[in-house]
């Protein structure tokens, strides 16, 4: 049995409200085992014998049916999450900065974002590639206003990416 993490995108911001209790109940109804939610930002941990290719559409369908929104997730394993956290390339304790990880379910999209990031005007932020992720560091309080933040917020990336603070990633382990 594999331990998975489903990272929901865009919940509990705006009009999409997903409580931890409802999210856990939906996951159990889908037949997922050892279900646990972490924080109220759309983080679902569970175990399953099914593979990711079967789980992703099943969970997205469950979210759509239960919560009534066009749901997308990035699905990974706890083992992969640990590797991603350990490989964070910037100083995660740098004063005045926030460490983020941008998770993607489509490697060519991550490569496109990374390529576009290279053409952004200089900002006080850093971006680096990782294994199925992009690492991002930006000044505290600017995670929605920097050039990179605006790039990853584009509608065309919504269905394949989501980001988490590195501290949240570590809480998922």
Question: How would you briefly describe this protein structure?
Answer:
By secondary structure, this protein is of the alpha+beta class. The chain is 34% helix and 27% strand. The protein has helices spanning 20-29, 52-67, 78-86, 107-117, 147-152, 166-171; strands spanning 2-8, 33-37, 43-48, 73-77, 97-104, 126-129, 133-139, 161-165.
Q: How would you describe the overall organization of this protein?
A:
A hairpin with a 3-residue loop joins strand 6 and strand 7. The longest helix has 16 residues, at 52-67. By secondary structure, the protein is of the alpha+beta class. The chain folds into two domains: 2-77, SP0830-like domains (Alpha-Beta Plaits, 2-Layer Sandwich), CATH 3.30.70; 81-171, bacterial protein sp0830 like (Alpha-Beta Plaits). 34% of the residues lie in helices and 27% in strands.
């Amino acid at each position: 049995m594999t331990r998975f993490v489903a990272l929901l995108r865009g919940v509990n911001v705006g009009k999409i409200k997903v409580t931890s209790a409802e999210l856990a109940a939906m996951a159990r109804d889908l037949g997922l085992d050892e279900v646990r939610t972490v924080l109220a930002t759309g983080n679902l941990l569970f175990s399953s014998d099914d593979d990711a290719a079967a789980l992703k559409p099943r969970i997205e369908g469950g979210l759509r049916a239960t919560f009534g929104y066009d749901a997308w997730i990035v699905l990974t394993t706890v083992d992969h999450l640990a590797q991603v956290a350990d490989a964070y390339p910037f100083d995660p304790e740098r004063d005045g900065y926030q460490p983020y990880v941008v998770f993607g379910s489509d490697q060519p999209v991550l490569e496109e974002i990374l390529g576009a990031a290279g053409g952004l005007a200089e900002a006080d932020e850093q971006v680096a590639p990782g294994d199925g992720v992009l690492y991002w560091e930006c000044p505290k309080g600017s995670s929605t206003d920097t050039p990179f933040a605006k790039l990853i917020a584009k509608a065309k990336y919504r269905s394949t990416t989501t980001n988490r603070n590195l501290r949240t990633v570590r809480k998922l382990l």
